[in-house]
Amino acid sequence: MMVHGLVVKMGFISEPSVLTALIGSYSVYGMGTCWSLFHQIRDKDVVLWSAVVSACVKNKDYLEALELFRRMQFIGLKVNHVSIVSILPACANLGALRLGREIHGFIIKRMFSRVISVQNSLVDMYAKCRNLESGIRVFDGMLEKDLVSWRTVIRGYIENEFGIEAINIFSKMQLLSFFAPDEFVVRDMIMAVLQSGENKLGSAFHCYIMKNGFLAFVSVATALLQMYAKFGMVCSARSVFDHIGNKDVIAWNAMISAYTQSKLPFNAVDAFTQMLHMNAKPNEFSLISLLQMCSLMASQEVSHELGDSIHAFIEKVGYSRNVYLSSALIDFYCRSGRVKQGKALFDEVPVKDLICWSSLINGYGLNGYGIEALETFSNMLDCGIKPNEIIFLSVLSTCSHCGLEYEGWNWFYSMKEKYNVTPKLAHYACMVDLLSRQGNIEQAVDFVKKMPMEPDKRIWGAILAGCRLTPGPIEIVKFVVEQLATLDPQNSTNYYTILSDLYASEGREEDVERTRRLVENA
Length: 522
What we know:
Blueprint: H1 2-9, H2 16-26, H3 32-38, H4 46-58, H5 62-74, H6 81-94, H7 97-109, H8 116-128, H9 132-140, H10 147-159, H11 163-176, H12 183-196, H13 199-211, H14 218-230, H15 234-242, H16 249-261, H17 265-277, H18 284-294, H19 300-316, H20 323-335, H21 339-348, H22 354-366, H23 370-382, H24 389-401, H25 405-419, H26 425-437, H27 441-449, H28 457-469, H29 474-487, H30 492-505, H31 509-521
Helix pairs in contact: 2-3, 2-4, 4-5, 4-6, 5-6, 6-7, 6-8, 7-8, 8-9, 8-10, 9-10, 10-11, 10-12, 11-12, 12-13, 12-14, 14-15, 14-16, 15-16, 16-17, 16-18, 17-18, 18-19, 18-20, 19-20, 20-21, 20-22, 21-22, 22-23, 22-24, 23-24, 24-25, 24-26, 25-26, 26-27, 26-28, 27-28, 28-29, 29-30, 30-31
């Protein structure tokens, strides 16, 4: 504001270069002042246009950015490489691959294809549009690469969940380039190691981090801590945490979350207490982790007492209007069987978002209040809130657990037809579970055979559980057990034992003996 006032006072407010700098500064606070500055000058040059395009992208107004880019060309402005670098992130974040390809053609036509910043933006765009192959072709065709080039292609592999390939590119960077990785590359590599699923690789990369001094970066240390937590190595996570010098709230949250993931609730409470003693101010994520941790406690009395204390703390520090915390509290009360308190808290939330509605719907379902859950879902729709795949999962799970078969089918078919939400494997699993619980085993098997994706072990497991509850044709049980043994060979003995017991209950001794031989050879 002070600089802006000085610019006006000195008469530079009509200078495009000055306005460009001001737009860049104000874009952090939204688009209001940016638009005022942009419309203030009559003769706008390409740099000013590019600045406001970049501001729109920064504020996630991607469609407006694309419209501005189109207008630039319409009025005859000669677009430069800065304009291209400004607009490609809009295509990337919208997943607009076709438009991105058109801009790529424009880049080649205008001879911008050798500009490193443009090439880096193209690699990023293709990676985010899930067309990594095209991005790699751009990367491989670059005559010169900078650190951003290597960082972008590594992140592209990670965004597309190719952790091993990202590790290979990192090794290639070490061998073939003059650029040393920075903390951003190292942090991305921790995610790549996590995607690889190799905890030994994680320990080796930890040594690399220590050797090269990256543990001094709190963001790197926190990412390493989170990696160990997800690998289930909570002692290693704590060791990393203890070596962090100036712990920020993100590091504390990561440690609390690590204990929660490892089902060590009292350790999580101790970490939170230490956090308060160190005068680190907890945020909503700290408190959400603690509320999730309450449901892990074996003692319901202790869980209730601690959850109530956290609720009181939330009220005390002024977070009671935070919708994420309200949703977490609703979830806590419902999971602890206190649905009335959860509903009362829900009613107090002034502006309810999708997560808030989902928490109550899921809470009703967990406690067997199927009708109330569906009524809440209908109320949500009446409020004009568009359902997503997660809330449909809560609805279908509720129908399954509460035996609401008709309602389950109704909402399952409505997903795609009425709300344009494509059912995923988890939604199909809910329907299989619903049919199996109702004893409709043959219908469940037919449903699975018609699924548009390959069933996993949880789907066949739901049918097997249904077979044990409702005796059905044993040949179906045999078929289901064979599917499970193929998908989950480590537990094949358990599956064949169930089949053997069913054969024994029907007096089929030859089949019992044959199945037992399979168990011995498994």
